[in-house]
Amino acid sequence: MLSLASARIVLGRLKAPASLRLSRPLVMTAKLIPSRTLTQKANSDDELFNFSGRWVYNEGLRLAERRRVFDVAGLRRLAAESVGRNPSDIVSLSKLGEGGFNRTFLVTMRDGFEMVARVPYGFPPVYFTLASEVATMNLLRSSGVPVPQVYGYSPGSDNAARTEYIFMEYVRGTSLNDIWSTLELEEARHKVLSLSFSAGGSIYYPHDLDGLVARRKPIPLEDGRFCVGPDVNPIYWHGRRSQLDVDRGPYASGEEMLVAPARKELAYLKQFGRPLLPFHRMRRKGYRYQEQSPSDHVANLHNFLRMVPSLVRGPELGCFCIRHPDLREGNVIVERSTSSESGSWRIVSLIDWERTTILPKFLQESVSQHLHVYSAHSSLNPPWGPNATPSLPKNFDQLSEREQARAEDVYRRRFVNHLYVHSGCPWMGESLDMKVSLIRAVENWEKLTARRRKADRLLQLFQIGSHIQLGGKAVDGCYKKAMRYCQEALKGELEDAETDEERANIRAHSKDRQVSFNRGVEIQRFRD
């Protein structure tokens, strides 16, 4: 385990120059632009293909990225066939909305039936993203989570429409954006988080991955219809990163997933890295308008990788679940309940599951949640986003010991999420944000690792108790294991000791220590 002294050595030279202090951290987010809802009206084909938003600079490039030409008649025919209709039944196909990664159309039939057709812009990895979203929605729907029904899809463009597409249910209702409501989201949130998985990555139908995944084989889920495959998180695919032969999962352990984004970025910088001006022009003054070498960021990433084994260990590494990738009011569709006199609002659908990732539970807060669900412990667990540096409550010293322990656990978990997000973000000509985060990690090393050491020490006690009988006799065949566990426990006690006198007492009692165990838990005081 990396000690505080070792951590300080690792990062001893990481000092933020006064000239480079910036007012706030800035991390690239996956959602580059907000969703745009448009008036439903007849559109010419050209309007169906083009984006209607504006950019302050690089507008031509951004619009070209979002122009998507397809066969309109072919899309109409495929849409009709997906619900057992004829193309002649369709009376209109109009633009419904524009998001960060796709364009949505409303398909209306003569009898009033409506459905959604969604076409991606073309940002990598189109195939994996679309195939994964469909499988994710169908798995959630079969588990009782309110999501739209999928009528049909094609993750490739070899079809009559000459584009990738998803056809799905058009959910009528009101977005939470449009009402004043204190809607209770805990039940829906619980249904999603209660789904457990054996690996990290993204969800697929096995047949959609046939012949496509070479580095790692898909991992089947308990429901044999689905499997876990490559992670569709945009950080792995941004720009030329999509060309890299790097590990994108599936991941069998949480530690593999925690380090993968940093290793991806190291591979990118090794192959494509060069000095750059910071992409964010308003921050260039802080760097004296000089191009920045990626070497500092490479050092930051290596330092982060050295920290990882000390930050997260134990059972939490193997527990995976999913979370909505962009939980905001506009993605929660509600309607008034007709079964109650109060006419309260109820959720009818959670939409926009694009780029959903299965993550270890300890990394769930790396997914930004714009819509927060409050709990009884909100004062100790306030809303937080992974781009912000975590901090302990201001009244930490006035909290009870139990509340302090809970606050420290929240703080540690959030700092791990914070470092995970920074380590995976594409390098954009800046290294200061990551460096500052690492410096703060070292400054708060005891709080970040103390409770982890406590859990490790308890595990050691269980291991010792299961291999050593009263009086010190090793269980038959377990002498070497028993000795190793005792040596590790002694080493841990010495590391945690705060004075020379305490260390001397530990050594003096280590050779002939009388210990009693009750189901593996030491009765005699064992410092943790």
TrEMBL record:
User: Which segments constitute the Aminoglycoside phosphotransferase domain?
Assistant: 94-183
Q: Which GO terms describe its cellular component?
A: mitochondrion
- The membrane spanning regions, by residue number, are none
- Ranges in coiled-coil conformation: none
Highest taxon of the source?
A: Eukaryota
**Gene3D superfamilies recorded for this chain?**
Phosphorylase Kinase, domain 1
Name this protein carries in UniProt: Aminoglycoside phosphotransferase domain-containing protein
Provide the species name. Coprinellus micaceus (Glistening ink-cap mushroom)
